[in-house]
Predict the 3D structure of the following.
Amino acid sequence: MAKPIKWTPEALRTYVAILRHLEKHWTAREVARFNTQLDHVLSIISTFPRGARRGGSDAIREALVMPWNLLIYRVGVDQVELLTFWDTRRDPRKNPRFRTRVQRRSK
């Protein structure tokens, strides 16, 4: 059974930032492509919430939306909570939320 998806304020903020960037530097076609791909990813994680790669803990997952956008979400008992979108071109060590995971992998 598919789990409902809950957007956090941070996820909404980063989603809007991505859309604004695409609208400013690209065309409406790329905006539509991003939204179509996001709808597809949300459908998959709603049905198979643990299907994406594991993040910092077992409950945190990371799904690639586009080659440069990662959707980070938390799997709950009765819902999937979207936490944020992450630009894969950024250095993960500069974001404190990812620091623990990066240090663990480097050992």
